[in-house]
UniProtKB/TrEMBL annotation:
Signal peptide: none annotated. It is an enzyme of class 4 (lyase). CDD domains: GGCT_like. InterPro entries: ChaC (IPR006840), GGCT-like (IPR013024), GGCT-like_sf (IPR036568). Pfam families: ChaC (PF04752). This is glutathione-specific gamma-glutamylcyclotransferase. Keywords: Lyase.
Length: 265
């Protein structure tokens, strides 16, 4: 996938630590569009909801570790540059709004004292096919009472580091048949890895996106939820969705407490 005009281009340094070129003060901004929304990185002192532009979010990345195994890979999300995505067959394409290229999620600010540590942590966490990119992030807040420090850059984009599973990576679903929504849903319904059930990942993402402030997840996610519910049956699906909602609420409440504590210090 080629870089979009949204993505900042530069030659990487010899040690591979590209983030230093984008964050000369030594701090770090990280954007999460998947599990980072409900499972934040350590040592952050700000969490800001918002979006990046020029991409679509899809469950088109195989997971051989966190939500699957090498023998039975699960499915997790990546973001795909919209221009490239438009060249692919996607049954969900008619439902993707042509008027917006936005992928919603949350950005985290990491102070300089922990930037190296968090970068190393994320490299390990996102090791299964993801690579580091940089793109403008647009903050958004539906809550005018939110802490000022979390909103001080709302009027202008923030450069963020983001982990993307590009179409060239070995875990990307190159076979169009494996990208069919029903096939993805069936794999998710069976998947299980070191971080738990693949269905849990899907339901957690749905609830986390609802908690961003827009009230709903994107259509691709909600359609997969519907399909997985049909496979699991209402009884099991209801239990898992209710647990996901509780877990996301707990996670977000801990996020709020942590940011409040940092602001009071």
């Amino acid at each position: 996938m080629s870089a979009t005009n949204q993505e900042v281009e530069t030659k990487p340094p010899l040690d591979g630590r590209t983030w230093r070129q984008y964050f000369p003060k030594g701090d770090l901004w990280v954007f999460g569009y998947g599990s980072l929304i409900w499972k934040p990185p350590p040592h952050y002192d700000q969490r800001v909801p918002g979006y990046i532009e020029g991409y679509v979010r899809r469950f088109w990345q195989a997971s051989t570790d966190h939500r699957g195994t090498p023998e039975q890979p699960g499915r997790v999300v990546t973001v795909i540059e919209r221009g490239f995505w438009e060249t692919l067959d996607d049954p969900h394409a008619p439902f993707e709004p042509a008027s917006t290229n936005r992928v919603w999620g949350a950005a985290y600010h990491i102070p300089s004292s922990h930037a190296e540590e968090v970068h190393d942590y994320l490299d390990v966490r996102e090791i299964d096919g993801y690579s580091v990119h940089y793109t403008p992030f647009h903050p958004f807040s539906p809550d005018s009472a939110a802490p000022k420090t979390a909103l001080e850059s709302v009027s202008s984009p923030i450069t963020c580091m983001v982990y993307i599973g590009q179409p060239s990576n070995p875990q990307f679903l190159r076979d169009p048949a494996r990208r069919e929504p029903q096939d993805v849903a069936e794999v998710i319904s069976r998947g299980h890895g070191q971080s738990g059930k693949n269905t849990e990942y899907l339901y957690l993402l749905e609830k986390a996106l609802e908690g961003i402030g827009l009230g709903s997840a994107d259509m691709h996610v909600t359609d997969l939820v519907r399909r997985v519910r049909a496979i699991e049956g209402d009884g099991e699906a209801n239990k898992e969705e209710e647990k996901a909602e509780r877990d996301v609420r707990l996670s977000l409440s801990e996020v709020a407490k942590g940011v409040e504590a940092d602001l009071s210090e």
